[in-house]
Amino acid sequence: MHCESPIKRRKSRQIMVGNVPVGGDAPISVQSMTNTETTDVAATVEQIRRIQLAGADIIRVSVPTMEAAEAFGEIRKQVNIPLVADIHFDYRIALRVADLGVDCLRINPGNIGREKRIKAVVDKARDLNIPIRIGVNAGSLEKDLQKKYGEPTPDALVESALRHVEILDSLNFHNFKVSVKASDVFMAVAAYRKLATLIEQPLHLGITEAGGLRSGTVKSSIGLGALLMDGIGDTIRVSLAADPVEEIKVGWDMLRSLRLRSKGVNFIACPSCSRQNFDVIKTMNDLEQRVEDITVPLDVAVIGCVVNGPGEAKEADLGLAGGTPSNLIYIDGEPNQKLTNENLVDNLERLIRAKAAQKQAQMDADARNIIAKG
């Protein structure tokens, strides 16, 4: 059951972060950040691989010291996903990770000192075709802006961003993206909306320091959802005080909900009530964990009774409508078979995987036909 999406993406310049396009007509990318000690190469590589497996397009790594920069070089050799180096103040670290294969530098030009140092970083980025992310944060605004505005405001965030943009423009460097993050939803949304009208570069969205898994997910969904529905945003990072893998899951859930990207199983499930003919909540908890590895876009409805079950199931790739004495399975909108509650999750997983394999085969065949005709 779909209403036509009203979202019209903001037009922006496209940049490349490694092999991932950001901006223009590229899909909105999902990213996260490691929280291991960067100097612990093995732990950081292991976490990067888990984040990548969850569906990340880009991963950011903090590089606060030259020792961490050397560790970054070892990490770069062991993973195959675009890496952003998060750097503050020391321009020499930026120069070093550039030589070690970084795919993007997160660095605010105005924070790294004299013009000669800024120019050295920009020249290196230009020579190696490395983009820069300007990352403005309400918690670390310049002192004069804090004094001017009294406290962080949307206008203060935008003014800070434009200062850094002006520096890069003066050096004829346009290969960058910008973020203006705040932990306050209204402040972040207002800042992004204003900045979106003032520059053409892609925007990296985030509600910074959003909170724990539950509260941070809610806050991020409200703020990023509002912007994405406005067509604003080219790459997103959900900031949670949780395992970074959870950030990727929430990011993908947002994009799936807004039909901005499709990957994996999109569940339509009822909250359950006394009409349910099977334990909907337990079934969903088990199913979500079991089919996390499926990447084929698939709509699966799990409805506990006959009131809404048939209507939702008919609109999904695969649907389950609770019934007595047996539950009814729909495939591609048509009744297919009945299932009892015994081994229900096992049988649902089997059917979901079979449908995913069928859909993948059809997608592969369509792709081959396009290539053959082209």
Automatic annotation (TrEMBL):
The entry's keywords: 4Fe-4S, Iron, Iron-sulfur, Isoprene biosynthesis, Metal-binding, Oxidoreductase
Pathway membership, UniProt: Isoprenoid biosynthesis; isopentenyl diphosphate biosynthesis via DXP pathway; isopentenyl diphosphate from 1-deoxy-D-xylulose 5-phosphate: step 5/6
InterPro entries: Dihydropteroate_synth-like_sf, IspG_bac, IspG_bac-typ, IspG_C, IspG_TIM, NO2/SO3_Rdtase_4Fe4S_sf
Broad EC category: oxidoreductase
Binding note for cofactor: Binds 1 [4Fe-4S] cluster.
IspG TIM-barrel domain mapped to chain residues: 12-252
Cofactor(s), by name: [4Fe-4S] cluster
Signal peptide limits: none
Keyword Phosphoprotein carried by entry: no
Top-level division of the source organism's lineage: Bacteria
Catalytic activity, as annotated: (2E)-4-hydroxy-3-methylbut-2-enyl diphosphate + oxidized [flavodoxin] + H2O + 2 H(+) = 2-C-methyl-D-erythritol 2,4-cyclic diphosphate + reduced [flavodoxin]
GO MF entries: 4-hydroxy-3-methylbut-2-en-1-yl diphosphate synthase activity (ferredoxin); 4-hydroxy-3-methylbut-2-enyl-diphosphate synthase activity (flavodoxin)
Enzyme Commission designation: 1.17.7.3
UniProt: [4Fe-4S] cluster binding residues: 270, 273, 305, 312
Domain named IspG C-terminal: residues: 266-353
Role noted for this protein: Converts 2C-methyl-D-erythritol 2,4-cyclodiphosphate (ME-2,4cPP) into 1-hydroxy-2-methyl-2-(E)-butenyl 4-diphosphate.
Family: Belongs to the IspG family.
Name the UniProt record assigns to this protein: 4-hydroxy-3-methylbut-2-en-1-yl diphosphate synthase (flavodoxin)
